[in-house]
């Protein structure tokens, strides 16, 4: 490598370094400007909302004035980053307020930008963007777009249909359960939990007529969702729906039924029903869960436990023996043990 | 004139509470942290302090104890995002707390308390 080549090489490295430093400087300056801009938008929005909620009768704040103020800090149709930031501020604000002021804010949001930004997102080709648009619509309670959002309830993308189903719950409440039999795609556990939580947050007073109609669904996820709703709202009068599904042919439906049942203390009649169907539960681990539930929620029923101890289910005999042993029936367990021992001896003698 | 001190890190809640207080004919000092407090403020006997409890670098209970110790006041209202029952119980155990409001808040409730004063 001669001297000229070395100097070219050094020049090349230096020029890369200079470009690198320039890009760092540009990035730092851009971030500084952006942080300032965001802070300005936040302060302006806070000022606008506070003045709108508590308007000064001597100097009233009009909607056109609000729009002008927002425009002056960069909330314009072409500036999508600013509009997105404003949407996040709007959602944050709406989440912090209840009562009459919540209604006022909801009204304000229909009169100011973001220029249908959320609505335009739901026609985007990008699924994530579409789901985000639906989410913003229900978070800001913009119920005028309900018809558009409902169309996505069976969408092939899980995020889009999940957000659409949650939006239906937020806007329609218990009435949204009437769509349950018509949902075509599976609903994951996470989706079910989100729906139950939203229903509980927005509509804490149960409307049983919609729940009863939804019982007709033959969808497995629908049955699981309904049981979770019964559990969340502690609907003691509806526990029969859960009991019916303890012997359902699907493992996960039975699992959900047992899980939901565990939060209820049932009447003695219903407990007798559980004992009757106990042996029909095909999975031994689920039987063990049910046995535990029966033990914790009812008095010791000696006949039932002895039936299990002498019955054909070998896997749970130890659990049954443990319950009897710890609850004053040691001699029954010993009797069972010795009876087995004598049978063994007879077999050996033969 | 009756005076209120509002301490909230969230600018939106801060501004809304400030407006609420001013509309009800109170003089209001609104700050985002205790660092913005002046010596004069520490000598003023506020009719109300409306404060959050979640600030960087200090535990919620310690913050409330510090506010109670350094700022003279008659009533202390807590408005916070930390609405867990355990926190609420611990805050009320400190004594001298007029009210505890967890987000989401109904501002009318705070307004009634201020108006009734």
Describe the structure in your own words.
The complex is a heterodimer of chains A (350) and B (117). Chain A is mainly alpha-helical. Chain A has a domain at 1-115. Chain A contains 18 helices and no strands. The radius of gyration of chain A is 32 Å and the shape is elongated. Chain B is globular and about 35 Å long. Chain B has one domain: Rossmann fold. Chain B has a 5-stranded parallel β-sheet with strand order 2-1-3-4-5, with helices on both faces. Chain B has 117 residues and is of the alpha/beta class. The mean pLDDT of chain B is 91. In chain B, strand 4 (73-80), helix 4 and strand 5 (99-102) form a beta-alpha-beta unit. At the A-B interface, helix 1, helix 3 and helix 4 of A face helix 1 and helix 5 of B. Chain B: Keywords: Phosphoprotein. Chain B: The modification 4-aspartylphosphate is found at residue 52. Chain B: Residues 3-117 form the Response regulatory domain. Chain B: This is Response regulator. Chain B: One of its GO terms (biological process) is phosphorelay signal transduction system.
